[in-house]
Amino acid sequence: MKRYFAAQRFRTGLQNKLGLSGLASLLLVAVLAGCSSSKATGASGGSGAGTSGTTGASSSGGQTTIGGVTSIASAAGGSSGQGGTTAAMGGTTAVGGTTVGGSTTASGGTNGGGATGGGATAVNSATAGSSATAGSSATAGSSATAGSGAMESGGTASGGRTTTRSGGLVAGGTTSGGGTTSSGGTSSNGGTAGTSRPDAGADAAAGVASPDARGGGGAGAGGTAGTGGTVAGGTGVASFHCVNWADNRDNFVDGHLLMSGITSDTDTYDGVTTKANIVVGAFVDLLQANSFRMPINEPTALDPWWNSYKAAIDVGIAKGMKVIIGFWAKDKNIGKPVDNTRWYAMWKVVIDAYVSNPLVFYDIHNEPHGFTPAQWITQVNGWLAQFPNVPRQQIIVAGSGWDDNVANVASSWPDLMMEIHNYANNGPTTQAGWKSNLLNRLGNAVSRTIVGEWAGQLNEDFTTGIDGNADKSFIVGTANTIYDNKMGSCWWAGAFAPSGGTSGSSLLVQKGTGDTMTFTAQGPAALTYIQHSWGLN
User: Fold this and answer.
1) Are the beta carbons of 507 and 524 closer than 8 angstroms?
2) What's the rounded Cα separation, in Å, for the pair 278 and 263?
3) 66 CB-near residues (< 8 Å, 6+ apart)
4) For residue 50, what pLDDT is reported?
5) Quick one: how far is CA 336 from the chain centroid?
6) Is residue 249 within 8 Å of 501, Cβ to Cβ?
7) Residue 345: left (phi > 0), alpha (psi -120 to 50), or beta?
8) How far apart are CA 280 and CA 293, in angstroms?
9) For the whole model, what pTM was predicted?
């Protein structure tokens, strides 16, 4: 297309300088127009105007939907290039509703083949040759388009992660000013870049794929692609928009587990299915979660109750959700299995039932404070040796202690997802303090860590006094840190009603019981920050 503009300037210069006759001018114009037409057709692989390239492109004068997301970059009379590059042929290109003078290239530069190195695909990223600069950025209404490169707050797109916000989410739910999007990486180890998030980059420390399905992204090694924003597989930590589904007794139970909404261990599989559909439906509809974390213990898996209890897992799978199954010891003061033989037997039951399903993930041990860091490494390695058939991208390993230190054990398993827990009590009172507090405990494993539990009081006024208040600064600071570092996030809890009441940190409030129970969401301002940690705003 660069050659097309050069030919136009050359033709005009000849006419002015040599004063060609009308016939000669007409002949020269015809020759040069033919040349430029050939170039334009070649860019689209001979497929004509509006034809989609390998990455997806904008149709002539309209919009193109890519992976459930609408691309804003449309050209007047343009044609699609092999790499999704759309150029206007003598017209103007609209970017976020702003017309940029002349004929400009709307997409993220011609890449001569459509894919960037390592398998990551550039999707309409408004960078080189683009008009989505600070002076002509799209407005808030038109920039919430993953993959278009347009940003709010006058930021400039930098060829990678496209967001609807240019910085952290600040008090009052507004967007912080300035900031640029992160540069795109490449997907390694078989990971495929999602069409709505071209920055599904490799984990720099481990060299493993870390794709992000926040906007319908692609699958990592062994996963399956997401569809229209619903995660169906994919193993990147940032793809976990997760809540904990807890037993009202707090999961440390010496007996059968009964998650919130399930009241009897004599219930049938169908009975649990009905109740699970109500709870999990509320996770999806009220919270916009795509994953949940739930407990398992030896009696629950080894007794007949398992035949009914597993209905909760099956409901999650049926709804296309990721299900994290984590082991809880029978007493919070123990922090380790009472009997390793029964512990392995428990895990065998679970793994035999779900090992072939890419939506099920195995959280080996919640808060293993009964082990020293060295002992915990030995325990995990024993589990890995016992179950070599479990895909490694579906294994989650807790940090040492109370799941509060990833840095001192993570190097033992550079290809596994790690997990850390973080609570508002006994900590900093500023957003910056909470950011340092969390990142310092992760070391080099930030990009492969899920915050498996984090909680503070939901019903706070977030319009003022964030710093100086432990709960408010914790929620805002932690949400921004998770989002900025593309970590996973499992809030404690989605459903949890201790002693039959309502927890101040449970996002759902239950009304009624059994098959007629309903849920409402509490703490809408706090929920906004939790959803921000998931990349939803």
Assistant:
1) no
2) 14
3) 56, 123, 124, 147, 195, 196
4) 33
5) 32
6) no
7) alpha
8) 11
9) 0.61
Q: Where do the H-state alpha helices sit in 322-442? A: 340-354, 373-386, 400-403, 431-439
Could you tell me whether strands 64-66 and 69-71 are parallel, antiparallel, or unpaired per DSSP bridges?
antiparallel
Helix, strand or coil, per DSSP, at residue 338:
coil
In our burial notation (b when 16+ CB lie closer than 10 A, e otherwise), range 91-108 reads bbbbbbebebeebbbbbb
User: Exposed (0-12), middle (13-18) or buried (19+): which is 285, by Cβ within 10 Å?
Assistant: exposed
At residue 188, the pLDDT reads 33
Residues of the chain with pLDDT under 50: 1-167, 170-234
- The CA distance from 375 to 248, in Å, is 30
The residue whose two tokens read 């399930």 is: 262
Amino acid at 12: T
Counting Cα atoms < 13 Å in the Cβ hemisphere of 24 gives 8
Judge contact between 185 and 154, C-beta under 8 A.
no
Q: How many residues does the chain have?
A: 537
* pLDDT for 179: 35
- The pLDDT tens digits for 160-199 are 333 333 345 544 433 333 333 333 333 333 333 222 222 2
Q: Cβ distance 418 to 397 under 8 Å? A: yes
Report the pLDDT value the prediction gives residue 12, as an integer from 0 to 100. 36
Q: How many CB atoms lie within 10 A of CB 278?
A: 19
Q: Give the integer Cα–Cα distance in Å for 351 and 356.
A: 9
Tell me the backbone φ, ψ of residue 510, rounded to 5 degrees.
-90, 135
The partner residues of 259 in beta bridges, in order of sequence, read 247
pLDDT at 168: 52
Q: Are strands 291-296 and 98-100 parallel, antiparallel or unpaired?
A: unpaired
Please list, residue by residue across 498-536, b when 16 or more beta carbons sit within 10 angstroms of its beta carbon and e when fewer do.
eeeeebebbbbbbeeeeeebebebbbebbbbbbbbbbbb
> Does an H or E element contain 31, and which?
helix 22-43
The sign of the torsion formed by the CA atoms of 72, 60, 199, 211 equals: positive
Predicted local confidence at residue 533, as pLDDT: 98
Q: What amino acid occupies position 492?
A: W
